[in-house]
Predict the structure of GNAT family N-acetyltransferase.
Amino acid sequence: MDSKVEKNKLELESFCIETERLLLRPVSMEYAEEIFKEFDEEITKYMFPSTPDSILDTKKFIEGSIAGFLSGEEIVVAILSKDTLEYLGNGGIHRIDTKMPELGIWIKKSAHGNHYGREAVAGLKKWADDNLDYEYLRYPVVEENMSSRKIAESLGGKEVSRYPKVNQKGVSLDMVEYHIFAGE
């Protein structure tokens, strides 16, 4: 395993990344209703996944995320306000057992404009720097999603490629991939 993290050291119940304003905790069924409600067409416009058809789809996503966490393959977190514990969105580091893990983030519409995405991704990157043996973090983003592109750039991300990608809805997206290097 190319990770400093041993699979058995990822403790689901105690795992938490804390930033100035946020708590990043493993996604759980506790957040299923909010994820289902907030992960709508407007949010998924710039993403590979499509909106869930039912709450069952959301619960399957959560079950898969928990399984990925327990197997040491990924960390998918609920992003919460530290002060109120309000659910703000999801983030994650996928393929943590490789030299090129992938970052992902989404923030609910009502929380946009507060730089929660930037703070959450910075927290995930710091955790990766402290716990993973990686070369760079991949950060693929739709070209027109300037807010998300600014997140990558704020962390020193370098644009390395552009390519089309068809999402789960069958829509071709113009992607920009950033690499965010370890320790930067």
